[in-house]
Fold this protein.
Amino acid sequence: MQFKGIYVPVITPFNDDFSINEAGFAAIVDGAIAAGVQGIIVGGTTGEYYAMDKAERVRMFALAKEAIGGRVPLIAGVGALRTEDAIYFAQEADKAGVDCLLLGTPYYAIPTSEELARHCLAVERATNLPIMLYNFPDRTGVSLDEACLERLSMRPNFCAIKESSGDINRVHLLARRFPHIQLSCGMDDQALEFFAWGAQSWVAGAANFLPKEHHALYHACVVEQDFVKGRKIMTALLPLMQTLEQGGKFVQCIKYGCQLEGIVTGPVRKPLRDMNNELKREFEVIVRTVKTTIAQICNHSTEA
């Protein structure tokens, strides 16, 4: 499977009683596809999978498959603490007809490199689906180290990695040592650097509400190879990206950004809480500035 473009890990809208708003979810998927994203990811952190029970997570696979209707690839997040659970979600995703799995490392347990490789290989053997690995050590406490990647890279189903460590040296390592594993940007405030090192895709949570602006950076860097223009767009995006990556309220910000665009999201699920009004006002200013500035950059480029 080839990964090129913007892949959006879609939010999960909830009703006031915190049940899943299934009609609202279908509308969100439709909106993302209409905006031109190249793929939909369900069951990711942005979709609040950690606050769902098993039945709900599996239900989201089917809902997403139905909503997409074959228009773009569907990637299903199947990460879990127990290997048995990750295998279960992988098999259920396969039954639902997804195109690819997103496999994060087990959190809290801190497996060794050998144990982590065995975990990933067990999930890979449970289906014959392509797998995008997900490296996010700040959230899980463990990293897919070089020895583990060496072992996994022998299996062709491990075809991509969403790198979210924030360590630019990891980008260098992946680009140089593992060019056969497609590199996907998973650290929004380093998107420009990822593209400079050959990444062809971006898993972007904020593309839930700013798809045009994400496409602008991708097109400048990957399609046009115009990194002068890319730096201008990235400069405009950085206040937003830094708020998302460093502000501690990623999911809340994504959902509020969607609300600013008229998308019905409902609340975040516990243990998270919605942002207060002061944070909302600050975020609204950031979003408005980003949209205005990038529109000016793109319009000026077109006129030139």
Summary: The longest strand covers residues 158-163. The domain at 5-303 is CATH 3.20.20.70 (TIM Barrel). Strands lie at 5-9, 39-42, 74-77, 100-104, 131-135, 158-163, 182-185, 201-203.
